[in-house]
Amino acid sequence: MTMTAATRLQARDYAAASSMERHAHAAANLTIVVQGEFVERLGSRERHYARGHIAFLPAGLEHAQTFGAAGARQVTFEPAADWLDYLADTRLALSDGPFANAPVYRRIGDRMLCELRRPDALSMLACEGLMLEAIAAFGRQGPGAPAAMSPPAWLRAARDHIHANALQPLSLRAVARAAGRHEIHLAREFRRYFGASVGAYQRRLRVDHAARLLRETSLPLSEVALESGFSSHAHLCRECKAQLGVTPSQYRAGVR
Fold first, then answer.
1. What pLDDT, in 10s, does the model give residues 29-63?
2. Is the per-residue pLDDT at 3 higher than 50?
């Protein structure tokens, strides 16, 4: 699946337990893993990639891949010259093929895949925006970017409590109690470190859970909503549209 020659955005599927012999590409590319997993060998280095990984591969770097029992699906694009200049300015070690894994790449990859599977008049523009969003997120991890703050232990405990109870009713007071801090202090510091309110963070986790059910099961949408902590199908639709840019049914059709 390819959007247009201009965007060079593609989705690629790899069969279960398959492999690719050592090879290189004429142009640099960025790849986001949206499903499955695989091992990549670059010289003497070996890396394991799974859903949510983004990897930069410079032109001419030889690599080989072995795919897992479920195969893999990736979205791949060739960054434009000025996008590569931005990445170089962040002082990422591009020649080493840097990589990362974060929720932001899962969301971007899913949305790219949906645009590729269900294109319309605005899909090319949407895909360009998503590619730029991926470039910006990737560049921010470089040594030339502002250093990311490490959250204190009590705030990590609050985050862990949200993850453990994401699909259950959860109040700010309960999270604050688990962290041993006042609610106002928790709310302020959580947003500062994690870039979202406690409620918005929990909703992201629920949408991630719903997306997994949509990809991996055939449950009716109403059951997906309830299993993911949403009060109704309509509630799930609103959150999917807000976070993934598509409805649950469009997402399911796009990733299958």
1. 999 999 889 999 998 899 999 989 999 999 999 99
2. no
CB 157 within 8 Å of CB 177: no
220-233 confidence digits (pLDDT tens)? 999 999 999 999 99
Give the span between the Cα atoms of 141 and 33, in whole angstroms.
18
Find, among 160, 234, 228, 224, the residue nearest to 198 by Cα: 160
On whether both 83 and 40 belong to a single domain, the answer is yes
Count the domains in the chain.
Answer: 2
Instruction: Tell me whether residue 170 is in a domain.
Output: yes
For 113, the domain range is 10-139
> How far apart, in Å, are the Cα atoms of 205 and each of 32, 103, 160?
19, 9, 12
85: part of which helix (H) or strand (E)?
A: helix 81-89
| Residue 145 belongs to a domain | no
